[in-house]
Amino acid sequence: MAKDSRVGKTSARRSKTPSKARRSRKVDDRDHTQNIVLSDEERLDEFRKSFFQSVLPDLPPIPGYHVCWLTTTNPRDSITGRMRLGYEPVKEGDVPGWETISLKTGEYAGCIGVNEMIAFKLPMNLYEAYMREAHHNQPLSEERKLTAAIDVIREEAAQVAKSGARGIKIEAEPGMAELGVDRDPGSFAETLGEVD
Question: Which residues have C-beta within 8 Å of that of residue 91, sequence separation ≥ 6?
Answer without folding.
Answer: 102, 110, 111, 112
